[in-house]
């Protein structure tokens, strides 16, 4: 896709970020399930960006967390949006939520942007073009042993049936690494692996909009992303994710299979 169009897409994502940072932003909270919430902000960000993307790229289909995504043609291009990744953080005014947008085309993610509006941090990547934070190139860490690593985990809040797996992964990495974090925003977890602030991240189950953009950020920053059992991630259907700087990927896979 033309770089001037991508620049307009990034600008639209940043503009939508203002919907998250307004302190009076969350007016309505609805439980999709006992542990999965949607607010007026999630809906407003998706509505605004969907309209903007339709105007900028009318031929590209749209997948978003807050809509029914049945009937998409996998052979065509698809925007994949998480309007608010980290909704529970948003509800608690925790300031660790992001907008995550990816472009899927030809069976792969070719563009990704993850925007953290509270710090005005904009992570971007294009396939073959590298990863950037606010326009500066980023790369994964050099850690070569799990004992040198800071890891993060996701606790699959919407899939309590997988909670035990998540906490087993946490316990494994806590024992093998320097320490473990749980920040509540998968796209930023992946962005932080991409820029080397942490060395790996694992979560047993996610949706495409949680990881599509972050996956490209990690890969283009020199890292590796697979499922926690080592198999390739699926892009239009959700799956578990293990992302790392690449150097410790095999060690992490072996540790997590125990
Ligand atoms: C959630 C966040 C969280 C992760 C969950 C996701 P949401 O996304 O990324 O960190 O643990 O698995 O569902 O629901 O806030 O968009
Ligand atoms: Ca999400
Ligand atoms: Ca979301």
Automatic annotation (TrEMBL):
Q: Which GO terms describe its molecular function?
A: inositol monophosphate 1-phosphatase activity; metal ion binding
Chain sites annotated for binding Mg(2+): 65, 82, 85, 210
Name the EC number(s): 3.1.3.25
Please list the reactions this protein catalyses: a myo-inositol phosphate + H2O = myo-inositol + phosphate
The superkingdom of the source organism is Bacteria
Q: Which InterPro entries match?
A: IMPase, Inositol_monophosphatase-like, Inositol_monophosphatase_CS
Q: Tell me the Pfam families matching this sequence.
A: Inositol_P
- Alphabetical GO biological process terms: inositol metabolic process; phosphatidylinositol phosphate biosynthetic process; signal transduction
- Keywords assigned by UniProt, alphabetized: Hydrolase, Magnesium, Metal-binding
Q: What class of enzyme is it?
A: hydrolase
| Named cofactor requirement(s) | Mg(2+)
Q: Which family does it belong to?
A: Belongs to the inositol monophosphatase superfamily.
Quote the PANTHER family the UniProt record gives.
Answer: INOSITOL MONOPHOSPHATASE (PTHR20854), INOSITOL-1-MONOPHOSPHATASE-RELATED (PTHR20854:SF4)
The name under which this protein is listed is: Inositol-1-monophosphatase
Q: Which organism is it from?
A: Candidatus Avoscillospira stercoripullorum
